[in-house]
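User: I'm designing a mutation panel for Glucose 1-dehydrogenase and want to avoid disrupting the core. Could you give me a predicted structure to guide residue selection? Please restate the sequence first so the numbering is unambiguous.

Assistant: Good idea. Sequence first, for numbering, then the predicted structure tokens:
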Amino acid sequence: MTPYLDRFRLTGRTALVTGGARGIGFATCEALAQAGARVILTDRDEAAAQDAAESIKGQGHDVVADRLEVTSSAEVHALADRHPEVDILVNNAGIARSNIPAERMTDDEWLSVVDINLNGLYWCCRSFGGRMLDRQAGTIVNVGSMSGFIVNRPQEQAQYNASKAAVHQLTRSLAAEWAPRGVRVNAVAPTYIETAMNSYVYEDENLMRHWIGGTPQGRMGRPDEVAAVILFLASDAASLMTGSIVLADGGYTCW
Ligand code: NDP
């Protein structure tokens, strides 16, 4: 039996992270690299991806950067052709567009969010997961959200909530299809995290009070705290887990 701590090590594995230039994606690249994986840090902004990869490389880890716009299924497919060795895929790229009443949402406000959060994530699962199935090994971690379970007041972001609920159900569908062929698929569902995505909220005392007051732990989460859960799910320590949607929400959904 593999000793417990060794199950968390990723030596000899290659991991690819989408939206890795900042926030949760960047912290995830750091976590996976520290655990010994070779990391392919991707983002739609190639220069930002290069800078982010350099900063992790500077800590003595094996990280390369590549451009990936997840909404382009052709680009995703081409990258998977270039990197058929990927053992761990972390689908992190995502956006939110908030405070838009559903009845007034434009086509673009709906489509832009669903295209990145759901379609792009699926293109990546299909292309990289297909190669994992050929090898009968590999694991995927999707970044969902507690907004896939609850409607977070007082923001209006029906398209975001719907996209994340769909990510959770896609995770479970792929997990069931692919488990017999050696590929695990799980998701993490975080609470409000201190990233650029939420920068507009820091100016809004009411909303901050609402978020923090609504969280039993009384605070927002940090990107590294989500990365630690992703590291666990990506590692052999989670070998019995597939189709799990792991809440990392400071207790928010308990109330
Ligand atoms: P950030 O906005 O800080 O980082 C997201 C990164 O993804 C950016 O580098 C962004 O690039 C990139 N990205 C966006 N769209 C694409 C695309 N189409 N193709 C490739 N890269 C893209 O976000 P977070 O770190 O906060 O969020 C990461 C994930 O976590 C998202 O899926 C989000 O929904 C989820 N999440 C976040 C929570 C939070 O409170 N922050 C809570 C729950 C879930 P660019 O700079 O060009 O936009």
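For picking mutation sites, this is relevant: The first strand starts at residue 14 and ends at 17. DSSP finds seven helices and seven strands in the chain.
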